[in-house]
Amino acid sequence: MSDQPDHESHVAAEEWSDFGAALSDLMPRLASYARSLTRNPDAAQDLVQDTVLKAWRSRASFEAGTNLKAWTFRILRNSFLSQVRRKGAGHETAELIDVPVASNQESIVTLGDVRRLWPRLTPEQQRCIQLVGIEGLSYEETATIEQVPVGTIKSRVVRGRQMLRALLDQTNIVPATGTASRTLSVDSSPRYEPSRVDDEHSKQIELLRRWRAERAAARCAIG
Prior knowledge:
There is one protein chain. The chain is an all-alpha fold. The chain folds into two domains: 93 residues, Orthogonal Bundle (Rna Polymerase Sigma Factor, Chain: A); 128 residues, Winged helix-like DNA-binding domain superfamily/Winged helix DNA-binding domain (Arc Repressor Mutant, subunit A). It is built from eight helices and no strands. Helix 2 crosses helix 3. The termini are far apart. About 24% of the residues have low confidence.
């Protein structure tokens, strides 16, 4: 019986360690979402740090088995709204999805088209596509984060993706002067994949990881 408290303390320590590791893994995604709200790298960094601190302090309230990403994104957005209210600012901002660096020229072109057309969407559409399409959150989780009905989230995602597809089609029909017509669909396969990956070659592994992540991000953006 005397060993029971020590055992429980050890289990609790492991749980908090796992929580901290999971929180650390989410930081790049939190940073991306923070930039979409603030449009300021320094402000985004401060917002992420504030979010991580609040999440750690509130870790006891997190329900194991639920979506940690949705939970932390909600903390981040609430922190952002609190900052806006304190500063008396009434605007909401958004910027392009933060995607990995491209690993081949064709992927740069197709993702470049999405990036170029992205500002044509409303800030609300941008955020909802990012949360649902890129971050993989459910409509319900996104609605909780954005503090709007689920139907509103679905409408923003559908209309935003329709707009992106329409703009991509228009761009494909009218190519730049002096250039050959080309397909701009982000779903089209590139002409070649990155070099054959050698498990012992970390650079090639990283190249393939980035290439796959980039294609997935572009594909999710237009649905």
